[in-house]
């Protein structure tokens, strides 16, 4: 889920710039202070906003969906592409108007853009009162106090240790069935196009036992699916400082899968260089570890992959895809692709298209290259593919993905899947929606007595490139 990019498996949609990030809502104390928060970017940011909400709730803040009644407006930002930053700046224009109507309202910028721009943000955006990087959220109460005194509050310190392991996230706008759990922070890979290592700092893994405890607590509260989050989950490694026992990602998967057979486990993102056979074997061994892997390829060409500093080549990636289908013939694989990276030729672009066919992605997130200040590519490579060519190549990628997704989904017609009910379908209150193990969204007519959080067997009757439509065959 990248909030500035709606080109999921579905149609070629233009980015809806007016779309606001998800806002949290919870009744505050009567007469108490209220905060409003919007989140952009990846799932890690949404997960971080739940940590922020928890820290603010401790301070007596209640959440509101109405920015006009908020004492504190927060925006959790993303820097991954230029467009993501533009979206945030547009939102700031709107917050400015709210502030003019209600002087004293504080505006805080959180997340990756705060980290990238640091105090410069305060010069560029006069209305901003606080700039807080992703590792500084514990400092929020102090920074709010500073801002209330009329000074600007800034903390963009990146930590080598912070994992917020002891903070229980406040699941405010949740469906009560599915939740995210951050298992690590930061990234030590230096993909040349990517700003994340600069905005999120060094990679660190969270205490395995705190992860299992959080998942267990969610299960006890009625949740039935957790998604373990990290920029590169396959390099998860945590050592118990007391026993020196070390836990890798495959072992963490097993620990969470063992909590209860009715608790589904998902994870994101896997890095092709690090995904091991041990992980695939563990997935195959547990029915409740979902048969779905997000394995971003970025490019199908080895020379471009080297320029991207992805540290694998086309053959390595194909070997990993083969291994996945060998261990789990029913596994779905999805991907991220970047069109028009520095010096990419037409032939090299074609190799991305053939890779998509080879891997048979169920869906993909697709982007054209957006140069980010400070990255290796910005310093060392020329952003020499014209916008027109980037867009044309991206459209070719999107068109092909739509065809592959459509075929992938058509092949499911007639099959029966175990589906976790998540809630009402968007289009009709007579239908439920839920996903199968392969992460495909399924829509089917309701049946009496069933509710979100229940598992049902659904037979697929029809399929588009985005959704499977079906019928419950047993409750
Ligand atoms: N950690 C994940 C990716 C996180 S960023 C991984 O390694 O796969 C999400 C996606 O944004 C990336 O996979 C990439 O496809 C895209 N992306 C990152 N930087 C970009 C840039 N400068 N321009 C265009 N797309 C970019
Ligand atoms: Fe960025 Fe690469 Fe790290 Fe993913 S693995 S967050 S693309 S540097
Ligand atoms: Fe964006 Fe930061 Fe995530 S740059 S994609 S919010 S890690």
| CATH fold annotation of the largest domain | pyruvate-formate lyase- activating enzyme
The biggest beta sheet is recorded as: 7 strands, mixed
Mean pLDDT: 92
Number of domains: 3
Query: In CATH terms, what is the architecture of the largest domain?
Result: Alpha-Beta Horseshoe
Q: Could you list the spans in which at least 5 consecutive residues all have pLDDT below 50?
A: 1-21, 23-28
* Count of separate DSSP helical elements: 14
Structural class: alpha/beta
- Span from first to last CA? 30 Å
Q: Quote the beta fraction.
A: 15-25%
| Residues in helices, as a percent range | 25-40%
Shape: globular
Can you give me a brief rundown of this structure?
The chain folds into 3 domains: 139 residues, Rossmann fold (3-Layer(aba) Sandwich), CATH 3.40.50; 233 residues, Alpha-Beta Horseshoe (pyruvate-formate lyase- activating enzyme); 58 residues, OB fold (Dihydrolipoamide Acetyltransferase, E2P).
How would you describe this structure to a colleague?
The chain is α/β, with parallel strands linked by helices and 475 residues long. It is globular. It has 14 helices and 22 strands. The chain has 3 domains: 139 residues, 3-Layer(aba) Sandwich (Rossmann fold), CATH 3.40.50; 233 residues, tm_1862 like domain (pyruvate-formate lyase- activating enzyme), CATH 3.80.30; 58 residues, Nucleic acid-binding proteins (OB fold (Dihydrolipoamide Acetyltransferase, E2P)), CATH 2.40.50. FE3-S4 cluster (F3S) binds next to helix 1 and helix 6.
């Amino acid at each position: 889920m990248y909030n500035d990019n709606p080109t999921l498996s579905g149609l070629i949609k233009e980015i809806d710039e007016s779309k606001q990030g998800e806002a949290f809502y919870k009744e505050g104390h009567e007469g108490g202070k209220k905060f409003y928060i919007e989140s952009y970017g990846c799932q890690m940011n949404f997960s971080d906003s739940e940590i922020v909400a928890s820290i603010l709730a401790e301070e007596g803040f209640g959440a509101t969906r109405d920015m006009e009644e908020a004492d504190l407006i927060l925006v959790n930002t993303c820097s991954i592409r230029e467009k993501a930053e533009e979206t945030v700046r547009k939102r700031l224009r709107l917050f400015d108007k709210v502030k003019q109507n209600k002087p004293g309202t504080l505006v805080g910028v959180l997340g990756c853009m705060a980290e990238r721009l640091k105090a410069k943000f305060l010069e560029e955006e006069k209305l901003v009162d606080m700039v807080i990087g992703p590792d500084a959220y514990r400092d929020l109460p102090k920074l709010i106090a500073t801002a209330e005194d009329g000074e600007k509050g800034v903390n963009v310190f990146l930590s080598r240790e912070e994992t917020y392991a002891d903070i229980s996230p406040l699941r405010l706008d949740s469906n009560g069935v599915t939740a995210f759990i951050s298992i690590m922070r930061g990234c030590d890979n230096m993909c040349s196009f990517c700003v994340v290592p600069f905005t999120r700092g060094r990679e660190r893994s969270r205490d395995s036992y705190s992860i299992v405890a959080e998942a267990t607590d969610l299960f006890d509260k009625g949740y039935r699916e957790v998604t373990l989050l990290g920029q590169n989950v396959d390099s998860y490694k945590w050592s118990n400082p007391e026993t020196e026992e070390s836990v890798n990602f495959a072992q963490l998967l097993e620990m969470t899968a063992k909590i209860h057979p009715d608790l589904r486990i998902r994870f994101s993102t896997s890095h092709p260089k690090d995904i091991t056979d041990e992980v695939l074997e563990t997935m195959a061994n547990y029915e409740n570890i979902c048969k779905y892997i997000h394995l971003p390829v970025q490019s199908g060409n080895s020379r471009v992959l080297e320029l991207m500093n992805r540290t694998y080549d086309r053959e390595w990636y194909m070997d990993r895809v083969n291994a996945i289908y060998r261990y789990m013939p029913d596994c779905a694989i999805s991907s991220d692709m970047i069109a028009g990276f520095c010096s990419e030729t037409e032939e090299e672009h074609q190799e991305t298209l053939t890779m998509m066919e080879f891997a048979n992605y169920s869906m993909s997130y697709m982007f054209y290259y957006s140069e980010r200040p400070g990255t290796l590519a910005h310093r060392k490579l020329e952003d020499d593919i014209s916008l027109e060519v980037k867009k044309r190549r991206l459209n070719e990628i999107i068109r092909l993905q739509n065809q592959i997704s459509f075929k992938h989904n058509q092949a499911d017609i007639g099959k029966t899947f175990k589906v976790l009910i998540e809630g009402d379908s968007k289009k009709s209150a007579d239908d439920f929606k839920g996903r199968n193990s392969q992460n495909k969204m399924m829509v089917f007519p309701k049946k009496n007595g069933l509710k979100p959080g229940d598992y049902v067997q659904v037979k697929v009757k029809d399929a588009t490139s985005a959704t499977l439509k079906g019928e419950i065959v047993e409750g």
